[in-house]
């Protein structure tokens, strides 16, 4: 099966639905601090499913022209650019999250939302469903990704377009197991985010993602240490990972 190549004029959502392996960017640093990273995402042939825009743990207090420009260059309205909504394991109120979502839509025209820190248990499911139903009412064709970071109960598959079922270090990912229920869903339902992946283990990491049925991935050699955000910059092997899952690559 061929992996993701988003042809000119095609939406990222269509590419994801085609079942092709591609990249989900969980949140680069601000465009002023990471101009190369944001620019690279616009390179023709980049196997991008979506990228998260996180201005200041959300949309920020006022419109940021640098973020507006970065979002516009990525084709913000087609589901490629997702606004970061911090759920904090369900501790933030419905009203706060919807308010943030409105600002993301009004200021940056995002094509969907990434719900960071989404709860995983059955007790949180009703609240998440209420929120995602409301978010979908903000525009047609909006993409919703739930950033659990681990396997939630299966009911969450009905609340969003995609679930992040792994987010963590390579040392944990290489020995990870998937929940049995994931076999009943297509790869585009799942995303894996892994930091600290050495270049020499990149192919192994890709094999694990395919074996476990993930359609979207983000692998980086950056490591989490102290306050360091491993997702803030591109991996040192950016060109290699693009070439491995980009145009002309097939199983």
Task: Classify the oligomer.
Answer: single chain
What's the mean pLDDT score? 90
Low-confidence stretches: 1-18
Name the helicity range: 25-40%
> What is the succession of H and E elements?
HEHEHEHEHEEHEHEH
Distance between the termini: 5 Å
Please identify, by name, the CATH architecture: Alpha-Beta Barrel
Write the layout of secondary structure elements.
Elements: H1 12-17, E1 22-25, H2 35-40, E2 48-53, H3 65-73, E3 81-86, H4 94-108, E4 112-116, H5 122-136, E5 143-147, E6 162-169, H6 170-173, E7 190-195, H7 202-212, E8 216-219, H8 238-245
Parallel strand pairs: 1-2, 1-8, 2-3, 3-4, 4-5, 5-6, 6-7, 7-8
Helix pairs in contact: 4-5
Describe the structure.
The protein is of the alpha/beta class and 251 residues long. It has a single domain (12-245), classed as TIM Barrel (Alpha-Beta Barrel). Helix content is 29%, strand content 18%. It has eight helices and eight strands. An eight-stranded parallel β-barrel has the order 1-2-3-4-5-6-7-8.
């Amino acid at each position: 099966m061929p992996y993701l190549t988003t042809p000119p004029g095609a939406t990222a959502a269509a590419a994801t639905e085609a079942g092709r392996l591609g990249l989900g960017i969980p949140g680069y640093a601000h465009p002023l601090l990471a101009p190369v990273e944001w620019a690279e995402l616009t390179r023709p042939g980049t196997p991008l499913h979506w990228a998260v825009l996180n201005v200041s743990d959300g949309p920020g207090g006022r419109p940021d022209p640098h973020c507006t420009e970065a979002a516009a260059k990525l084709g913000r309205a087609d589901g490629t650019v997702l606004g970061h909504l911090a759920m904090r394991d369900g501790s933030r109120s419905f009203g706060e999250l919807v308010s943030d979502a409105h600002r993301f839509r009004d200021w940056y025209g995002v094509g969907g939302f990434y719900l960071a820190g989404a709860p995983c248990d059955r007790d949180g499911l009703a609240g998440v469903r209420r929120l995602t139903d409301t978010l979908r009412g903000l525009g047609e064709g909006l993409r919703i990704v739930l950033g659990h970071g681990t396997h939630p109960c299966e009911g969450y598959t009905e609340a969003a377009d995609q679930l992040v079922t792994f987010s963590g270090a390579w040392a944990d990912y290489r020995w990870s197991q998937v929940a049995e229920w994931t076999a009943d869903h297509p790869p585009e339902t799942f995303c894996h985010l892994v930091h600290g992946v050495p270049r020499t283990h990149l192919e192994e990491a890709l094999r694990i993602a395919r074996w476990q049925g993930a359609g979207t991935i983000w692998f980086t050699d950056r490591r989490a240490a102290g306050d360091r955000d491993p997702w803030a910059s591109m991996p040192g092997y950016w060109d290699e990972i693009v070439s491995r899952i980009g145009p002309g690559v097939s199983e």
